[in-house]
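Researcher: Here's the sequence for the chain we discussed earlier.
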Amino acid sequence: MIKLGVLISGSGTNLQAIIDRIADGTLDASIELVVSSRADAYGLLRAQAAGIQTLTMDKSFYDEDNTADRIIASEMRYRNVDYILMAGYMRMVHEPLLAAFENRVVNIHPALLPSFKGAHGIQDAYDYGVKVTGVTVHFADNRYDCGPIIAQRALAVQEGWTVDELEAEIHKIEHVLYPEVVGLLAADRVRVRENGTVEILPE
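Model: Thanks. This is the structure I predict for it:
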C-alpha cells in the first residue's frame, strides 16, 4: 500500500474518484492528508466525509509560495507520504516540495500535453477547434504543466459539442485515468528514465 497526499483548490472530483477506488478495494493506497489552497474548496468536505485529515494553506497564511511548500513538504514527510497528487491544484509547486518528493509529485491536466498548457486547457483546446484532445497525468517539475508524462488518454471531439459537454467528457476520463496511474505507482511499475521520459514496467 502506498500513502498519498492530495493537493486541491476546488470541487475535488478527482480526489473523490480516488477515495472511491480505495473504498471499493480496487486501489491499494491510503490518503494521509488533503491540502487545499482555498478555505472554501468543496474538496475539503469530501475529505472530511471520508475521515481524511485536511490542511488549508490560504494565501493569507503565508508570505511567499516557498513558505507554503516548505510547510506542505514537512506535513507530508511527517505522515510518511509516498506520492503527492495534484488534483485540480491551481498553484505551482516549488523547490521545497519538489526536492523533498523528487519524481513523486503527480499532476493531472485536461489536455494532451505539451499542447494547451495552463489553467484553461479545455477551453483553449475547444477554441482552437481541435478534433482530438484528452487528459495527461505527469510528474510535476518547476515549470507549469511540464515534467515527465506518465499516461495520456485521447478523446475525439464530437461535432456540435459545447465546451461544457467537452468538459464533462474530459472529467469522465480523468476519474478513470488518475486512479489507474495511482495503481501503477502502488504496484511500483513507474520509472523515470535518464532522458526524462517514463517507462511503465510490465506486470
